[in-house]
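INPUT
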Amino acid sequence: MSVIDSDGLLEVRGLRTVFDTRAGRVCAVDGVDVSVRRGECLGVVGESGSGKSVTFASVMGLIKAPGHIDAGDICFDGQNLRQLSVKQMRAIRGRDIAMTMQDALTALNPALTVGEQLAEMMIAHDQSLPRNKRERRRLVEQKSVDILQLVGIPSAKSRLQQYPHEFSGGMRQRIMIAISLASHPRLLIADEPTTALDVTIQAQVLELISDLRAKLGMSVVLITHDLGVVSEHCDRVMVMYAGQVVEEGPTESVIRNPQHPYTRGLLGSIPRISKRGEPIQPIDGQVPDLIDLPAQCRFYSRCQQRSDACLKYIQMTTLSQDRKVRCVLAEETAHD
Amino acid sequence: MTESQSPLLSLDQLSKTYIGRRSLVERLMRVPPTNVQAVNQVSFDIRRGETLGLIGESGCGKSTLGRSILRLHEPSSGKVVYDGQDITGLNPQDMKTMRRRMQIIFQDPYASLNPRRSVVELVGLPLKLHGLAKNDAEVREKVAYIIERVGLKANQMDRYPHQFSGGQRQRIGIARALVSHPEFIVCDEPVSALDVSIQAQIIQLLQELKQEMGLTYLFISHDISVIGYLSDRVAVMYLGDLVELGPVESVLNNPRHPYTQSLMSAAPDVDQPGKRDRVQLTGDLPSPMNPPSGCKFHTRCPVAIDRCKTEVPVIESVGEGHQARCHRLGEQISVLNLSA
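OUTPUT
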């Protein structure tokens, strides 16, 4: 294994997550490397089926049968998570690495009040709480009120007694964030935190995540399909397609100067007010079926620049220190 | 409004109120029902061949408005005049004839297609209903033509919706709306459920079809870049009210209502991250069951004054074909440079 970057909080190498279905083996994540540095915000972009959520569900140890992790190392702060027991993993999940889900209504327990769900999280992970039940309850309530105020929920104390259905979509998303922050995680994985929300609420939630990152000094992984969100909130971005990372680099460089035809296609597909009247440039075709994929560039069937050279396994090419791309064209220029 | 050409569709004070349900006890106790004013006296015209973009957040009444125009939800008051004829009073028979000319494309391609019907049944149904095909062979022929036009293959017409991807299903929905050769289409968030690259394919298809078949669109969306890209004029709704209306250039370059200004600044932009003074709206959309007094936006408006809490603003003209509903229009106020 390569030397681990000392800034790296999370280092994933060669992750392969597969699902065995009746139709065959689906390789949802195939050879993915991720590195998240301390205090940074990494954007992960891709369309449905690109493997972005499965990659981070694998990191969290949330892959259930028929799926399993087939290969790869997941190192968090120097510790290989794949070698941990279920019990050890449970201690890390939620305390050091927290994840917020896309749909807050299904992720929250409808039968428990928000206060109970926050308390559950704190009691499970905070060893420093007093043993005495009455004292503990008082302290947990105080902390819960603080954290709800932190995520901007007004009249926090009375809202602790309420159930998830009594909150609006934006408020529920804030509660999810509050629950994941309750244990002061070092890494927050936000899986499409704003997809279900209106733009004005989306702006509030993203601003909140950015503020908290600065305030608490945690790292954030923002999984999204919206390049606009990435360009406003992330330091680095990783573009995924059909289970592989196809391009990676500092946000500005990837968006200004995309190297992979898929990234260029994605950017060309966004309708822009400034380009009224000009034709939009969609990517033709669809994402390939992930069952039994041949060893070739996965974007081959939709690529405008395809050639026979693409019909082999494509390696990631390092263009400069931070900038990587998985494309034959880049391979050629790098060798010249 | 230009010259003598009459609009294809005009709405006159169109309202839709949903009457809340009361229990027996509440009825006996004479508790008044909680009404939701989903669409509140909206008036505008849609010209032949134009695309009117309708934008607003969830719950603002944009979909209800779209459906009320087609009388899929019966309007509570006001008029819908289509091609010179008031269709709100039409009997079901005449309305059915009218519906051949006005169609709708729905948001969710998973929910809007009956899973037990094949493509030829789904797309061919309007032909049968309106007597546009003499026999099954003609139905198949016309269905084959239209589904090829929307980018599917004719040999796929005996398949069922679950055998298609989301983008393909949306194409089936488009084919079904277009097979009866309508003039006017309500596009109710047709691309919101799709991935970016597929979304672009569908937008391109809708643009081509509009050119080819001379269609007029009411395009409903919450995405300001989609609306800005393909509309000629834009209407902005907030809690059932039309708050701003005008040509796309003037609304987007010079938005006059504080809500439109905030919407624009909230939308993330790939090309210019952090380019503007971001204005953050605080709080959520108020409940439409109990809307705020005065200007409905005053609870979230960064420039609200006392007058906004009590007095309902009227919609006034602020430029060539550009209208807005705000008390502070005269002051040329903008929420965008508040921080400056």
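end of record. The domain at 1-96+223-228+235-271+282-336 of chain A is CATH 3.40.50.300 (Rossmann fold).
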